[in-house]
Amino acid sequence: MFGGVVGTRPRRRQSESPQVVHQVPSGSVTSTPPPPPPSTSTVSSTSAANSDGNHPAPMTPPLPPTSPLPTSPPLFDFETVSEYIIPKQELCDRLVTVCTNKYRILGYPVCLEDGKYARNEFIFNFAIVLDEGVEYSTYKSVVRKVAKLFRALEEQSGFLSNEVTAMGVFALIEQVLEDLNNYSECMIPINESNTINIKLFPTYAPPPQVKAFHVPVCTVQLENLMDVNWDLTMQKIVPFIDGINSVRRISELADADYNLTRKCIEHLLYYGCLIMVDVFQFSAIYACTAEISILVQDPSLQEECQAYVSYSSPRIPFPFLLQLYTSLTQGLTLKKWCMENATKLKGIDVRRFISFGIVKGFLYRSHRYPVPAEGKVDKALPLARYLDGGHHFDEICTDLQASEKEVMGMLEGRDVQIVHR
Amino acid sequence: MQRSTNPNPCLIAILLIVRSSSGVNFVFHYPPKPRSTPTHAPARRHSQYAAYTISGTSSPSSPSTSGSSDDDADDRQSRTTARGRTATERSDSGSKTRSRRRQHVKDEDEGDGKARDEKGEAVRVLGFKEEFLAGLLAPKERMCKTKFELSIDDMVFLGYPLHVRPDGTWRKQKKKRGRERNGSGGYDGDMDMEGNPDAGNTAMGNGGHEDDADDEDDDEDGESSQGGNFGNMTMFHVVFVLNPPELEYHSRTQEMFDYVVKRFARALKYEQAKDGYVWREAEKIVRLKDKANHEGISFADLWKDILDQSSLAYAISRIYIDISQSKIAHVFLNNNLGLSLQMPILTEISVMPSITEPQVPGLPLTTANSFGDDDSEGDNLLAKHFTLLFLEDVDGILKDIEAEATDSSASLARFVEACKPTMSYVSILVSKSRFLQISNSCGIPLHEIQVMARHLVHWRKARAIPPIHQRDTYIVSPNADLKKLHTLIPIYRTLFPTLQPLPKLLTLLSGKPKPFSAFIPSRAHRPAYLEILAFLIRHGLATQLRNFAWLRVTRQIKRAVAAEERRAKKANADPPLNSQPQEKEREREREKELTKMTSSISSLLSHNNDSDSEGEYEDSIILEPHQASSIESSWLEMMTRDQPPDIKALFDRIIKYLNGQHAIEKVAVREGIARKDVRRVLGAFDGFVIYARHW
Question: Is residue B645 part of a domain?
Fold first, then answer.
């Protein structure tokens, strides 16, 4: 990887173009400054390039000790893209990235206006160079943060424009680069009052919406992770997350507010501590998905399955389990299925048997949806809002806190068809 | 990286920038007033700009976060497409920076008082001055002819800038290869080929140029009134402005670039090279703008004029409108080149999303997607036995084909017509007719049929499906979009007024799976019911439930094989009298035996030699029966030993399908065996076959 500090002079009408002041590793952006021993490039080729503006006098860029090693050519041609790195004022204080030569240059140009600078302005940019295809969202906050810090430093003490302190910028940036590449974080004290604190966080997708009828299943031992500083609702609800209780039920059992419970669950879901399944019921219908063939091809998954579903010691041969799984079918409730297969279910925990399939994705739950037979719903009727085809019985039941039978009773006499999906 | 399955072009605007001898010019943009995007900058909520931006990238399946008004809601939502966002949410977050910036820009404006500035709004696009944008998006020559990607906050400017060649021409003259085409009505064809990244690039990019470049100038003189201006333009750049969600940044921009940006730029370059089309159009637009400036024509009228008079501007507007709705954009450039652009969309899925994954209800669910991308691809044999399910009215498709009028349109029309049920007496929209049959009936070679079928699928007119058959089983698709039912019921009712209502039919299909024929009341109803089935499949309400099979080896078989081996081993111990012509055979036999032995020995060892106990042998499944290992082959041999020879022969033919990857339903068509025989063979091995039923 390579970082670079780019320095530029204040923009003026027809004067010198922007210049690279610091670059780590040297020579990665412009080849003019003879490079120091090249810092070995590594993994994701993150590079920090920082450009700061110097002013009036002929520039004496604070260069690292020169060693005339032949180097690889610069990563890209700075001239070509300099207008995007040290841009006009309109682009300052914005996150600007530009791609060139398979690299992405990520920067946050800052413009300071002050009479002390030549032409009354000083533009600098701390930029990071990444491979074009790399997921870069996590670095956005890095450039933003460093830009703001440098701006503050410059405003306080002319940190970047003062030649004495500017010398230290190279070392600073070099350390940022090395630390980020090696440890994904850095903490570098600059002076008594300023420190660079950066940590790279992966960006996750927002958690899916949690519904009252969802059943959370832990993927980690939450009790072991939890300490007294955790959120109170979280502490209340965690003991009830057992892969059987629905979110609604958890909030009831824990005597916690439902909305807070939901938020906690979403939070855990966001960090991958949970997965969601359906409520397990013997009146439910389960059937195979196309993923079943993955189970057949994966011996380790089969072993996991054998170990999980049986509660007695003799291992159940996998072909036998497969036959059981494949005999689940649309239109057949689990209850009926159990009766049909009563003799074969010795030593098998049916709930675990089903939930293993659901969690691994080779079983799915066929839900029952009430739909109006005539297509139109009389809005005046109770339950009408559940009849648009978007609500299955689980949802209606948890919503109304009624049993399926009761709901069916309410629908009695209504021209409603039940569709299994 | 997260990839959402929902189409989301995230297109905000398309800009056209041109550099000529008089400088960089911001020629045209569409829509006239593009909405700006939110920035990630400090999200304080002001409302005064709420009206400034327009609604979000609304994706089809998006419930908004139920009233979660937490501060990070906006940030979270900008990461993926999965959910819709409200207008206010988006605009709010950007307002602060924007207002600051506007202030900024205003200050600068005071300096150079241009005439057009009076119209305020008109000059600023996406929050920037036109001049500034033009300068920004006119890259140096070194950045031309390659992907241009510049992002400012959450807005991405994506383009493929093209620069004139050093000799003043736009394309290297090639004498030999007839790459130039008098492209009329190019549904696909050349543009697709040109789309191959860099294939043409290198060809045109390097090295010397021939002298006959002048030819073009001459041609052009005749056609264009601007004569000498041909060389005036040195660069043009069509910029697509996008605001992709954070987590989908790479996939969204890359797709847009590959399928739209680059292809459009290349087509323009082709026309520019031919007769200076782009420059001519750019001049036209600029002239209109200048005129409007002088005469004080309103902004809206000006845009109307431009779209009326410039085919390039019109093409850009079409692309914006169609692509941002995930449709196919058909444009016609220079009265000459027809170009169709589209972003690929997902047409079917084979894996059900789990309850927490983004749902795409309504997408057909099937694993029968054997429609490879090119002829040489694997399942070609099966493709022959596919048929097309038209997604639109056949008459409409025929009309479209007529309008295009190319060489192949006649046979295409014939094919589309033949795909109709006249073949086998299924009804209007579908086709139980297979390509092979179609090929025979309309006299078009099969290969061409496949090309045409692929063409129709590519342009979203049809979907390839296994032929519908009343003896196959269909269920309500687990991915069916039942919310759409209320819109489908009236359509259904007009199509099939006298038959069972749609919800009733779905209820029937909800039961234990049965062959579809079970729902057909009488033989006379069969065509109508198959038509209904086609309707259900077309709207993703039903999917075929197909059988997949594996071979199970039972303990008994294994034990029998092992016992036999032991016997053979003993026999082997006595050296056989070497003699007879079968010696070679013997040799081979012995080798086989040896390998068997070693494998069985090793298995014996691993089980600590309590050889005959029950525990030693366990049922197992042969994953790839046609590539069976030696021990598996001997098991198979043992299983088939007692079967009559015809069954054995058939079994050998279908054994390769018994690996859980092939639907049993397609075996008959692929192998040309009668369905009955397939059933018979599998019946003979009943105890050894495990079936799984899915889509």
Answer: yes
Backbone torsions φ then ψ of A310, nearest 5 degrees: -100, 140
Inter-CA distances, A12 with A19, A120, A312, B351, Å = 13, 10, 82, 59
Helix, strand, coil % over all residues of chain A, rounded to 5? 35, 20, 45
**B147 and B283 inside one domain:** yes
User: Per-residue pLDDT for A59 more than 70?
Assistant: no
Question: Across the interface, do A373 and B140 touch by the CB < 8 Å criterion?
Answer: no
B300/chain A closest Cα distance in angstroms: 27
B328 and B406 share one domain: no
Contact A140 B367 (CB under 8 A): no
**Is the same domain home to B278 and B189?**
yes
- Look at residue B360 and tell me if it is in a domain: no
The residue range of the domain holding B673 is 551-572+592-603+617-694
> What is the sign, positive or negative, of the torsion defined by CA atoms of A7, A9, A14, A16?
negative
Residue B68 lies in a domain: no
The kind and range of the H/E element at B272 are helix B262-275
Task: Report the residue from B41, B105, B619 with minimal CB separation from A320.
Answer: B619
Burial B9-47 (b: 16+ CB within 10 A, else e): bbbbbbbbbbbbeeebbbbbbbbbbbbbbbbbbebeeee
Q: Pick from A296, A336, A399 the residue to mutate for testing the B interface (most B CBs within 10 Å).
A: A296
Q: Per the CB < 8 Å rule, is B354 touching A375? A: no
- Do B162 and B271 lie in one domain? The reply is yes
Q: Give the mutation candidate from B354, B481, B553 for the A interface (greatest A CB count, under 10 A).
A: B354
Contact between chains at B105 and A90 (C-beta distance less than 8 A): yes
Q: Do A389 and B489 make contact, defined as CB atoms within 8 angstroms? A: no
Q: Which of B41, B76, B476 sits opposite A206 (nearest CB)?
A: B76
Which of B341, B358, B392 finishes a domain? Answer: B341
Is there a contact between A90 and B144 (Cβ–Cβ < 8 Å)?
no
Backbone φ/ψ region at A255: left (φ over 0), alpha (ψ -120 to 50), beta:
left
What is the model's pTM? 0.74
Tell me the per-residue pLDDT of B544-582, one tens digit each, with 9 for 90 and over: 898 899 998 888 888 888 888 888 888 776 655 554 445
Query: For residue B240, which of B269, B261, B254 has the smallest C-alpha distance?
Result: B261
Question: Residue A355: CB partners within 8 Å, gap ≥ 6?
Answer: A217, A243, A277, A280
Residue of A nearest to B137 (CA): A84
pLDDT of residue B592: 62
Domain final residue pick, B465, B489, B513: B465
- Residue B387 sits in the same domain as residue B332: no
A263, A326, A371 member nearest B503 (Cβ) = A371
User: Burial level of B493, CB count in 10 A (0-12/13-18/19+)?
Assistant: middle
| Total tally of structural domains belonging to chain B | 3
Cα–Cα distance, A125 to A112 (Å, whole number): 11
CB contact under 8 A, A322 and B246: no
Test B97 with A206 for CB contact under 8 angstroms.
no
Q: How far is CA B404 from CA A133, B223, B396, in A?
A: 39, 26, 13
pLDDT digits (tens, 9 = 90+) for A170-202: 888 888 888 888 888 889 888 888 888 888 888
Q: Measure A17 CA to nearest chain B CA, in Å.
A: 15
Do B335 and B182 form a contact (C-beta atoms < 8 A)? Answer: no
Partner-chain contact A375 B485, CB within 8 Å:
yes
- Chain B hits for A296, Cβ within 8 Å: 550, 621, 623, 660
Domain assignment present for residue B322? The answer is yes
Name which of A409, A407, A417 is nearest A373 in CA terms.
Answer: A417
